[in-house]
């Protein structure tokens, strides 16, 4: 006796194709979500590093400002032996000889 296989109907083929596409899309979505989560973690680490470095920069700016303040500079100059003159010294107001000889 010859038993013929039952031919697959067209809707069954379409159903299998649709299930395959859905499965492929689900796997793709899981992979993309994993990459996005990893990228987000890296981004948050980078942002926290930026905030930390900005805090260090502010601290350094404050140190530079306080080190260059007039009071600090005056104290350092006095420690090196500089002092304010009692009376200012002025040079003569005469023109140099080279300037007098020009026509």
Structure description:
- The chain is mainly α and 103 residues long.
- The chain has a domain at 12-82.
- It is built from three helices and no strands.
- The chain has helices spanning 10-67, 70-79, 97-100.
- The mean pLDDT is 84.
Strand content range: under 5%
Characterize the overall form. Answer: rod-shaped
Counting helices, strands and paired strands, the structural category is mainly alpha
Distance between the termini: 134 Å
* Element pattern in H and E: HHH
> How many strand units?
0
Helix content: 55-70%
Residue-averaged pLDDT: 84
- Which consecutive residue ranges, at least 5 long each, have pLDDT under 50? none
By DSSP (H or I, 4+ residues per run), the number of helices equals 3
Radius of gyration: 42 Å
Largest sheet: none
Key descriptive features of the protein:
103 residues; mainly alpha; 3 helices; 70% helix
Question: What would you say about this model in short?
Answer:
With 103 residues, this protein is mainly alpha-helical.
Please render the helix and strand layout as text.
Blueprint: H1 10-67, H2 70-79, H3 97-100
